[in-house]
Amino acid sequence: MLHTLMNSPFKSNMILLFNILKKSDDLLALQDGVIIAVDKNYFLRDLLNSSANLYVLKEDVTARGLCKKIATGFMMIDYHKFVFLTEKNQQQMNW
Q1: 0.70 exceeded by pTM
Q2: Alpha-carbon distance 18 to 66, whole Å?
Q3: CATH of the domain at 24
């Protein structure tokens, strides 16, 4: 399943997301959701422990000036890879 986090993690039900997220899932942070990928943030430890595949949209990270602050557990991707993730995952959940 592809989880897309579009809102700030402080405005989303992260406890529910962590409970639903499986090892085989993909999580893409985009728009204000990229805040979750900032190194040493409140949610990062639990997210990295989920063992899900973690992605962040490069354009949104750049627009927010966070390029040098992204945690190492995230892969920065572009829109082409976003399309690939959408095609790969038949189910998607927006947060």
Answers
A1: yes
A2: 23
A3: 3.40.1260.10
